[in-house]
Specification:
The complex is a heterodimer of chains A (471) and B (360).
Chain A: H1 2-7, H2 9-33, H3 36-62, E1 71-75, E2 78-83, E3 86-89, H4 126-151, H5 165-173, E4 180-182, H6 188-193, H7 198-206, H8 239-252, E5 259-264, H9 271-283, E6 287-293, E7 296-297, E8 300-301, H10 302-305, H11 312-318, E9 321-326, H12 330-347, E10 351-356, H13 375-383, H14 387-397, H15 403-426, H16 445-460
Parallel strand pairs in A: 4-5, 5-6, 6-10, 9-10
Antiparallel strand pairs in A: 1-2, 2-3, 7-8
Helix pairs in contact in A: 2-12, 4-5, 4-14, 4-15, 5-12, 7-15, 8-9
Chain B: H1 2-6, E1 38-41, H2 42-56, E2 60-64, H3 79-83, E3 88-90, H4 95-107, E4 111-115, H5 126-132, H6 136-139, E5 149-155, H7 170-174, E6 180-182, H8 187-199, E7 204-209, H9 212-215, E8 217-220, E9 233-236, E10 241-245, H10 249-262, E11 267-271, E12 274-276, H11 280-290, E13 293-300, H12 305-317, E14 326-330, H13 340-343, H14 347-358
Helix pairs in contact in B: 2-8, 4-5, 10-14, 11-12
Classes of the chains: A alpha/beta (471), B alpha/beta (360).
The complex binds thiamine diphosphate and magnesium ion.
């Protein structure tokens, strides 16, 4: 089934977009307004912003910034500070704002652990659901086979998305191809959804001459201009401010699109995360920050990463509307991202989504996570909380999926992948002129000289160099 | 003691870039090796140094990303168990935080030993190193200092690291008055130099050659010892040309020296060890003897630290030089994954440069 998808992905995809619009929007509107977190954040943020604007206006007109009007009494007995940034009420009660909420931010979900809807509403239709499921399975198989290929020494590195398939696929499904993606590295499913082929994935991992990155980066550092997917950098969180800048451009061009950027719980500790959220709020740009809080940053548990109630609460501090979502519930992710997109574009505002999931795999092929976390914890999430199984239960209970479809899907994806890998492995590497291009738009003199000198060295010592890299 | 130990580092590491298993060691005269020494690799030598640092100074702290469970390169293995989670701990994923925290901790008279997981990820901490750590003493008229700060970071090629797990950023830091930059070439050197850095009264960036973490094995004395900073070491004597390098590159340079010897060229090889402030005298004395100089490093040639060495030696030895100073370094490109061997300053590139310099 995924095969027909692959063949005519764009046709189906566009088809789906139109249909999803019908189902998605009406229902999704209610989903954010009914969210308990939003009821708390919206009323606090909105009047504050308003006051700020009014205050500014009156200051400019009268030039009385520090005049007697500064202490103004609105209601009898209630003193208010006319402070740059908005009115602040005085109080005689000395109370510190608590470092932690009485209750942790709630987590939005649609499906329960058994894949049964908690609320009955029209969510995604059969076609979209099956497409989503097929992509999740494809992602899983891709992870298994590439991981194995690394173990066999055929590729130098790999990193899986196990446990985060729903975040990958469902978020991608709720977007349009015009939305720009600034990824971390654990979101290849977004690219898969957009039509990057298994062959294209394999080409990158093998760094062959068909790799768009020209063999220069480590495996899994995908990027595809035609899929609006910016090339991955290994450096954590650096993509977040880029996303804000790109979103500003979309806003200025009045595009019907937003920017979506992904990062981990670990990434939220970097300065770039804080810069990006703050910029996004101040510049009022259509950007969605999707935090995959998977509990771990390599060996570092979230308790060593932050003491806030996760990442979702940080949005409020920056004036960014935020929601926490069950990352193992594909429908919840879909709804939240869909609603976020609507708000981001129509209101020119950033949205922060924290998806709670678990990094079921090791951090990467360089890691053995049993060194720092209990095996039964991994096992629990792998079995009882698996997002793919949960989604399968849902489509099965709708009568949209069968064991037969499942085995047909799995065997054909596997076949296609094995073929893609075998092929990618045989394709030669990019030629050595690719060392010197793209450093700048045009290679300057020093690089031209270095290329000449390198070619002379290779002529003298051909045995020093890998035979599969054409000169 | 330190000076006798310096000899043990001779030809400490012999390995090549084709990922053959590293051969351990070797001292020309094995009788010089202390009885207590055992053969260990470079990450274990670092680990020993950290154990000793924490053991001998109750105000020493070790911290960084993933440090608690032993670090991604196992350098901090066992430290948290032994010294407790208040002295050895994970930090949030934030390099500017790690170094800034280290500056403050050191300013209170502690030994702050910070780990940056890869040298490639030191850049978010650049401001804290360049504007803060480096100027802390100077700007306060020596009322305050953060001399107890040591920043460890694995650097350099590793065979499959691509752009962000291969860089050699030492030159950026050599341009900053107020910090020192130190790079060891072998397990013995790593242990002695790291202990000196930790106990030095200046903030130091200590780059560890990650390719050698497992590959380089040699006998390392178990006891507490320090190797002097800002002292270069002639690790191979010769008369025709002087080669200067540091870290993992020295083993490649040494292979080139051996090949050149077969052609009757006698090479002198110097390990600079401390890049800033560097030991000009040792290099100058050698060049006065040989009349020729070659510098090699993995970092891109343009603006690399080789340029500084070259300029200084030309200033001091202009009339003695019989050929232009040669630099065999990384290409002026980002570090490219599948082209790694093409990018690197390989043995034969060095060998060719030795020959053309000698035959100039
Ligand atoms: C600036 C920077 N520092 C350190 C690293 C090393 N590193 C790679 S992944 C990682 C953990 C990231 O964790 P998280 O953001 O939670 O993402 P996850 O791997 O869980 O998806 C670290 C520390 C890096 N890549 N970049
Ligand atoms: Mg994580």
């Amino acid at each position: 089934m995924a095969f027909s998808l692959r063949k005519s992905k764009y046709v189906i995809y566009n088809n789906l977009k139109t249909r999803m619009g019908l189902f998605g929007i009406t229902k999704n509107r209610s989903c954010w307004t009914s969210s308990p977190t939003h009821h708390h954040s919206t009323p606090i943020a909105a009047p504050f912003v308003q006051t700020f604007r009014n205050t500014c206006a009156s200051f400019r007109n009268t030039g009385t910034l520090f005049s007697a009007r500064r202490f103004e009494s609105i209601k009898a007995g209630k003193q208010v500070l006319d402070f740059p940034g908005g009115m602040v009420a005085f109080t005689s009660e000395m109370s510190f704002i608590s470092e932690s909420p009485k209750e942790r931010a709630h987590c939005y979900r649609v499906l329960d652990d058994n894949g049964q809807p908690i609320i009955h509403q029209n969510i995604v239709n059969e076609e979209v659901s099956i497409t989503m499921y097929a992509h999740m399975v494809t992602l899983q198989i891709m992870d298994t086979i590439f991981y194995e290929a690394q173990r066999q020494g055929r590729i130098s590195f790999y990193l899986t998305t196990n446990g985060e398939e729903a975040i990958n696929i469902a978020s991608a499904a709720a977007l349009t191809i015009d939305d720009l993606i600034f990824p971390q590295y654990r979101e290849p499913g977004v690219l898969l959804w957009r039509g990057f082929t298994l062959q294209e994935f394999a080409n990158q991992c093998f760094g062959n001459k068909a790799d768009y990155g020209k063999g220069r980066q480590m495996p899994i550092h995908y990027g595809s201009n035609k899929h609006n997917y910016f090339t991955i950098s290994s450096t954590i969180a650096t993509q977040l401010p880029h996303a804000v800048g790109a979103a500003y451009s979309l806003k200025m061009e009045k595009k019907d699109a937003c920017v979506v950027t992904y990062f981990g719980d670990g990434g939220s500790s970097e300065g770039d995360f804080h810069a990006a959220l703050n910029f996004a709020a101040v510049m009022e740009v259509p950007v969605i920050f999707i935090c995959r809080n998977n509990g771990w940053a390599i060996s570092t548990p979230t308790s060593d990463q932050f003491r806030s109630d996760g990442v979702v609460v940080k949005g409020k501090a920056y004036g960014v509307r935020s929601i926490r979502v069950d990352g193992n519930d594909a429908l919840a992710i879909y709804n939240a991202v869909h609603a976020a997109r609507e708000m981001a574009i129509s209101e020119h505002r950033p949205i922060l989504i924290e998806a709670l999931a678990y990094r079921v795999g090791h951090h990467s092929t360089s890691d053995d996570s049993t060194k720092y976390r209990p095996a039964n914890e991994i096992e629990f999430w792998r079995t009882s909380r698996d997002p793919v199984t949960r989604f399968r239960k849902w489509i099965e209970s709708n009568g949209w999926w069968s064991g037969e479809a499942e085995s047909e899907l799995r065997s054909s994806v596997r076949k296609e992948l094995l073929h893609a890998i075998q092929f990618a492995e045989k394709v030669e590497k990019p030629s050595i002129s690719n060392i010197f291009t793209d450093v700048y738009d045009i290679p300057p003199l020093n690089l031209c000289e270095q290329e000449i000198s390198l070619r002379e060295t290779i002529k003298r010592y051909p045995e020093d160099y890998p035979p599969n890299v054409p000169v | 003691m330190a000076s006798s130990l310096r000899r043990y580092g001779r030809r400490a590491v012999s390995m090549c870039r084709t990922r053959k298993p590293a051969f351990s060691t070797s001292c020309d005269d094995t009788s010089l090796l202390p009885q207590s020494g055992t053969s260990i690799n470079l990450f274990s030598a670092i680990n020993q140094a950290l154990h000793i640092a924490l053991e001998t100074d109750s105000r020493a702290y070790v911290f960084g990303e993933d440090v608690s469970f032993g670090g991604v390169f196992r350098c901090t293995t066992g430290l948290a168990d032994r010294f407790g989670k208040h002295r050895v701990f994970n930090t949030p994923l934030c390099e500017q935080g790690i170094v800034g925290f280290g500056v403050g901790l050191a300013a209170m008279g502690n030994r702050a030993i910070a780990e940056i997981q890869f040298a490639d990820y030191i850049y978010p901490a650049f401001d804290q190193i360049v504007n803060e750590a480096a100027k802390f003493r100077y700007r306060s008229g020596n009322q305050f200092n953060c001399g107890g700060l040591t920043i460890r970071a694995p650097y350099g090629a590793v065979g499959h690291g691509g752009h962000y797990h291969s860089q050699s950023p030492e030159a950026f830091f050599c341009h900053v008055p107020g910090i020192k930059v130190v790079i060891p070439r072998s397990p013995q050197q790593a242990k002695g130099l790291l202990l000196s850095c930790i106990r030095d009264s200046n903030p130091i960036v200590f780059f560890e050659p990650k390719w050698l973490y497992r590959l380089a094995v040699e006998e390392v004395p178990e006891h507490d010892y320090m190797l002097p900073l800002s002292e270069a070491e002639v690790i191979r004597e010769g008369s025709d040309i002087t080669l200067v390098g540091w870290g993992a590159q020295l083993s490649i340079m040494e292979e080139a020296c051996l090949d050149a010897e077969k052609d009757g060229i006698s090479c002198e090889l110097i390990d600079l060890k401390t890049l800033i402030p560097w030991d000009k005298e040792t290099v100058e004395a050698s060049v006065r003897k040989t009349g020729r100089l070659l510098i090699s490093h993995e970092a891109p040639v343009t603006g690399g630290f080789g340029a500084e060495i070259s300029a200084s030696i030309v200033e001091r030895c202009f009339l003695r030089l019989e050929a232009p100073v040669a630099r065999i370094c990384g290409l002026d490109t980002p570090f490219p994954l599948v082209f790694e061997t093409f990018y690197l300053p390989t043995k034969n590139k060095i060998l060719d440069a030795i020959k053309s310099t000698v035959n100039y």
